[in-house]
Amino acid sequence: MEGNKKGGMKSIMMLILGMLVGAGVFYAWNVYMVKTPSDVASQVEQAQIKELVAKVGKLIILPTGEEPVVATINDASALIKDQVFYKGSKNGDVVLVYQKAAKAIIYSPLRNVIVNVGPIFLQDQQAAAPAPAKTDVTDAPAPVATTTTKK
Q1: What is this structure's pTM?
Q2: Is 118 helix (H, G, I), strand (E, B) or coil?
Q3: Tens of pLDDT along 26-48?
Q4: Residue 79's CB: how many other CB atoms inside 10 A?
Q5: Beta strand pairing call for 69-72 and 113-119
Q6: What pLDDT shows up at residue 109?
Q7: Sheet holding 69-72: strands in order across?
Q8: Where are the alpha helices (DSSP H) in the chain?
């Protein structure tokens, strides 16, 4: 009977040890191997941006050496009232902002067209830039002010 007690105790100890090892492996797997939902979302978002850039790149030569900041237009009518640059855009259109190249592009995925292209002026550039000479800018695209965008 004493042999049974020792054998039963060994089995329980082995079971506990196995559970501890299993828990450690499970923890390590979750920390090092499993992607968090935000990691997966970020990867999906990056893939969507690359796909978008590829589509736009077939319609216009894009700046190189940087990835654009991308924003979706949700209220086109309000943007059109604020800036002429957005004229012709619709809800669901996308704005690609290339900060280094100082260029913004409005692309309509549904229509597969470039709606508008124009220069951007960041607040830092506006403060440092000298005042421009007076020129007729009725035909030029309106500059894009700093915009709130999601990346």
Answers
A1: 0.59
A2: strand
A3: 666 666 665 556 666 677 788 99
A4: 19
A5: unpaired
A6: 96
A7: 69-72, 94-98, 103-108, 113-119
A8: 2-32, 37-57, 76-82, 123-128
